[in-house]
Amino acid sequence: MATSKLPILALPHPLILLPASRFTMPVSKEIGETLLTLIEESDALPIVAAIPITNPPSEPVLPVLSEWGTAARVLRLVKPPARNPRQPYLVSLHGLTRVRLINLSTKKVNLEDLQQVHMRDVEYPPTEQVPSREAAQKFKQSALRLLDRLAKDSLQQSRKDGYNKIANMLDDITDARTPWMADVLIGSVNGEYNDKLAILGTPDSEARLQLATEIFIKQASISEVSKKIATAVDESLSKQQKEFFLRQQLAAIQRELNVLQRSSGSLSSNGTPNDASSGGSSELDDDEQAEADDMAELRRKIEAMEAGSEERKMGVREWRRLKRIPAGSVENGVIRSYLEWLTSVPWPNSTPLPLPSTADSSGSPQLTQLPDLKDRSFLTTARAQLDADHFGLEKIKKRLIEYLAVVRLKELNAEKEAAEERQRIEAEAKAKVDTAAKPGLVEQPAKPSKEVVLYDKSQAPLPAKSIHVRKKGVKGPILLFVGPPGTGKTSLGQSIAKALGRPFQRISLGGVRDEAEIRGHRRTYVASGPGLIVQALRKAGRSDPVLLLDEIDKIGQSNFHGDPGAALLEVLDPEQNHAFNDHYINVPIDLSQVLFICTANSLETISAPLLDRCEIIQLSGYTYDEKMHIARRFLLPKQLTANGLEPSHVTITEPALLRVATRYTQEAGVRSLERSIGAVVRYKAVEWAEHLDLVKQGDPAARKECLSVVEEHELEKILGIARWDGEEREREERRGVVYGLVVMGQGEGGILPVETIALPGTGKLKLTGSLGDVIKESGELALSWVKMYAYDLCITNSRSDDALKVPEPIDIHLHLPAGAQKKDGPSAGVTMVCAFVSLLTGACVPTNVAMTGEITLRGRVTPVGGIKEKVLGAHRAQVTKVILPWANRKDVEHDVAPEIRNEMEFVFVRTVREALEAAFGKGVLGWRRDALLLESRL
Ligand SMILES: Nc1ncnc2c1ncn2[C@@H]1O[C@H](COP(=O)(O)OP(=O)(O)OP(=O)(O)O)[C@@H](O)[C@H]1O
């Protein structure tokens, strides 16, 4: 074996340089300078023996040099700026061949020696033999397998390509080159340190190939197995399972710690038993008990669900999941709250749970006693209920009684059908039990569906009550109460519920923009929950409540949060609502037993399909007379009770009440009136309380009687200055100003002036006051009509003259006040004509006159809507003469109360000319003679 002397370069652990490999490493100043001297002294690049240190620096023993190392060529030595001052040089080495250290008494070296480069004797192994064919083949196979695995596992394409390239090379190399290839591959793949060291220490080519083969097989297997494990773990260990696993461990650790604490702390330092570990019960145990009770309650509720029903299946599934997931985890909380919701929905045919002994009265819904629907007096009672709650509204009450009668009949039929079905099933079950020859379990149909219930023959037959037959829904019409605020829509709904003995729940839809508010959020959504319908059902506690969908006209339009109106369609459609799908509950809910009643202030914003499903019941405003009755019989007693006073404590005189109704409120309904009466009652309540205090203290001032009567003159002191006091006096007669009749956005009728003025200009018309297209067109139409008849009305002296250009060119500005409110519709046509005529002729329309009606170009007056509201509004505004289209006569006769008809003058007109005459008075406008002929021809 050839020997020589080579400078030894110790490679710090875990560096190894194998033959045919290259690397660069940092070296100390001393080593760097020595290598520099070597480079300077030798002609070619110097050779060093790179010997690895086999033990890590952390071990408290001296570094041990490996017996084998690699003779390496120093390719480069650089001293880059800004390097670690302890290792300022970088040396690049290229491994050439194996060398073995000889004549070394001990392989342990001092740390100082490591900072030096010493010359040592080394020997070179003999020339390598060509390995056997078999060893070479095995090596190639194992190397190819490993390279294939590495290529598959690497994420970077460039790496993949690199591995594939080496694999191709491997195919082509001769057997003699395989030992060299083994060194190359072991040096370049990320293997274990000891494997590399073993390869370095195996100079025999055959043995080295075998060793490399084993290493490659081992590496490929590890890689494959870890890949498999990673995939398996990823697939099977879902997040919850990982969490479960970790929590189990945590619990186990906690248990061990507790045991340790108990054993060390069971006796305190003075030898007495430690309180904390004495095993006595603490409030923490109460928590655990409460938790166990809650779970038991949940379980009971699931068990009470109808066997075989969708809700029960879902409940059981989620219950099982809940059991698998550790308490305290997020997922556990989510499932728990879902189950609480699921079990609190009043599913039909659930076995009623026994009421808890300490029932919370505030939380449970207030159920009125269920009236016997078979009772002959049901309708009489219902009528009495409606009368007791509401004054007037005769037509509406009549319709509601019809509605209640239909509901009653349908309910009776549904009950009868359900009873027959139950009997049939009972009989079938009995027959099956009698004929069944085989003992044991027999399949028994529980209901006509495909579901079967396992039934044990040895036990008694099912009691009739436990046979669940779903009662058919009562598909009555859906009522839609439309009318101005405070006219009793909501309270009528409440009365219906009382009359039917069903729980009542109100769902306010005003401002609902998101479909999910009705249908609920899916459970994947953070903080998800059920929608308004399910929430109301839960509060009602029964599957057949009366649900009042309040303000359906205020529901948001379709937007990127979905279409809440469309969700309502499903709720209200009797064909679909037996399987309403709340996204959160995710089990079809049968809403067919629910009676839906909707309310709205106006029909304009309600979608046609929604309207189509409802029967509209119009409620209009009340007359002052009705308001007085309502106030005396309903509102005042209600407010007295609400404020803890007796009826004898407050007496509001008739003139005072009328003043409150007329001067302090001006609304279609009675809500503000109720509020004002409430304010009066509260004022009196304070007086009474003070009086009682004085009496208690024996104060002589208390002898002065506490006056219970509220007089008209006291109102200003109590309610402040009246808002509508003398409003009609402010309506002065003015040229170009005429009062029209309108229905506001909330469905309230009233009067609105049409104001016009003439300005120097070029004959143009300017329209302002938030006007829509239709009302603008009406304005232009009215002006065209006036221009056409300007000559006949003596506004111009020739038919060819333009009324806005002769004698002076003018512009007309027409304005409708209350500019913030959007106005539209054709019904102001007549009013606008009168306003233009008044402006151009100088004649005025009296302020006690108001009008409505659409006009055509030919001068006809056509009918308009909202007559009842408009007339009531005019009455409230103390208008005494109303001009209406001829075709609206029947509306006045049918809808307007006789006392109003008696108090007001109604003029029904067919043409604009008739309207002008009615507005200005007979003969006020000077018509030319020939105009009369033309008018009659039209
Ligand atoms: N005809 C009536 N008889 C007795 N009380 C009435 C009558 N109409 C309305 N009320 C009372 O007026 C108050 C307001 O009525 P309610 O809340 O039903 O109005 P609403 O029409 O639903 O209003 P909104 O459109 O603003 O919801 C209630 O206290 C109600 O009892």
TrEMBL record:
- Chain positions recorded as ATP binding sites: G483, P484, P485, G486, T487, G488, K489, T490
Keywords assigned by UniProt, alphabetized: ATP-binding, Hydrolase, Nucleotide-binding, Protease, Serine protease
Residues the record marks as active site:
S827, K870
Tell me if Oxidoreductase is a UniProt keyword of this record.
Answer: no
Catalyzed reactions: Hydrolysis of proteins in presence of ATP
Locate the region Disordered: 263-292, 353-372
* Entry keyword annotation includes Nucleotide-binding: yes
Q: What's the Enzyme Commission number for this chain?
A: 3.4.21.-
Kindly provide the name given to this protein in its UniProt entry. Lon protease homolog
Q: Which organism is it from?
A: Cyclocybe aegerita
Recite the lineage of the species. Eukaryota, Fungi, Dikarya, Basidiomycota, Agaricomycotina
